[in-house]
Amino acid sequence: MSWMILLASALLEAVWATALGLSDGFSRPLPTLVFAVTATLSMVGLGLAVKRIPLGTAYAIWVGIGAALTVGWAMATGVEPASPLKLLFIAGIVGCAAGLKLLPAKEPALSAVRPASPAEIPHV
Fold first, then answer.
1. The model's pTM
2. Does the pLDDT of residue 108 top 90, yes or no?
3. Is 43 in contact with 101 (CB distance < 8 Å)?
């Protein structure tokens, strides 16, 4: 479920990034409202996803998928020119995000979660 929340949050990132561009410096009310709502929901979703997905992996996927969707939408709507090389690089971003998902999960190193030694515990 965390992965679905992360992907939905990445989709919302593309929505808020697009709305940000359309808000004309927050001077247009509807795109500004869409930006505020979707940015908030996107951040909440990312926060929920990192409860089960390592932060670095979740953030990289969130940014990568969001950026790819944002530029893909801009090209599809004619706001930004498309080119084969640009499509190749977007595919690379998506491929790298998918690769992060496919990596096996690893338990944190024991040294990172070891209890304090008696010498490290303050005396009262």
1. 0.76
2. no
3. no
